[in-house]
Amino acid sequence: MDKKKTNTFTRSILILFSGSILAQIIVLATSPILTRLFTVEEIGIYTFVLSFCSIFMAVINGRYDVPIVTEEREEYVFPLIKLALIIALFLSIVVTLIYAIYITWISPMYKEYIYTIVIVYLLLVSYGVLNILTAYNNRKKDYKIITAVYVVRTFFQNFGAVGLGFFKLGVVGLLLPYTVGQLMGIRRQGKPLFAHYKSILGSSKKNIMYVLKKHSKQPLYSAPAILANSLSYSSIVIFIDILYNMSTVGYYSISVRILGLPLALISGNVAKVFLEEASREFNATNQFYKSLKKTVVFQFSLAIPMVAFMMLFSPWLFGLFFGEQWKVAGEYVVYLAPMFGIRFIVSAISPGLVIANKQQLELLMQFIFIVASTISFLLAHTLHFSIEEFLISISIAFSIAYLLFFIAVFRYSKTNMKI
């Protein structure tokens, strides 16, 4: 039985992994073209807009998309979907208003990009819908669908930007294909669920209120925790803009884009499989140590050589691959690689505290990341850090935070363990 479960785990990862490989090949193939078609500042603005949206991407459904995967009783899945959709539509409006206030009043230097308000709203709504569809696909183990649509979206977003780049449309040439690309594959991904649209829309108020209360820890603890984590990373882009300039944001964005490839390629997919496998193990045995151990060993075996390679060769490869001026971004990778290596491992098991129903602790742990980024910013601002010193402080602070998170998940993966 254990061998069969291991084979299923491996097969699921390989399905998701294969699609991610194709998607990241597309990213790698188009990146050196994009860095030559768009200026550093244009890429910086593009990163700024996406960073703002990414703060709310994972919480736009109030985290009620997570129990779509883990809910034991099938009759409560559709009420969860309806609830998650309603919350997404409402929060998209609220967040878009916040963004509009920021670029018109707080930071009026970006008024020339007023059109991005519409783009932000469309992206937030698309994130909400895609979170629901992906969760339902995950519940049904439709990993092939998840993989296929991910490749389609990545292809359209990146090659679309390349095509528009030749017309010198600036930031529009980056944001437009990314936004439209979010809609690619929705019909295919939603096909298993669209057949039940009457059941979803017809979900009673009573059942919606039941799942709202049953999974109330999601918006109360898990959502703020994920928001804190997203804010801690996206705020770095804002801090760099405040401390330095938008061109530095552009260099930073490319370095993080490459560092994020293993996270998107491997960790994100492993986390999906870990959530499903560990949930089943926890429901059956009240622990998920076996799933955790298997996942950590797998991730660790990849993290060591990956980090070593990036620290040794990134500056040279960035200059060769993206153009000589982008060698600076490769130097940023050297400072950030150790932290991303630890993140690579921990992000794969990050759903662990949700599975163990310890959302309060997750909120506390994620709050540490905001503290880490804020302290680094204040130190950089007070002591006039160079960008290199700022990135080193971020790497050290975040590494410590991830190690604390790992310890918490590890101890709660075993029955009757307490912190």
TrEMBL record:
Organism whose genome encodes this protein: Fictibacillus aquaticus
Keyword Transmembrane recorded: yes
Membrane topology field: Multi-pass membrane protein
Transmembrane spans: 12-31, 43-62, 83-107, 113-136, 166-186, 220-244, 296-322, 334-356, 363-384, 390-410
InterPro entries (UniProt xref): Poly_Biosynth_Transport
Tree of life domain: Bacteria
Protein name, entry field: Polysaccharide biosynthesis protein
Subcellular locations according to the entry: Cell membrane
PANTHER family, sorted: LIPOPOLYSACCHARIDE BIOSYNTHESIS PROTEIN WZXC (PTHR30250:SF10), PST FAMILY PREDICTED COLANIC ACID TRANSPORTER (PTHR30250)
Family of the protein in this entry: Belongs to the polysaccharide synthase family.
Keywords, ordered alphabetically: Cell membrane, Membrane, Transmembrane, Transmembrane helix
CC annotations in GO: plasma membrane
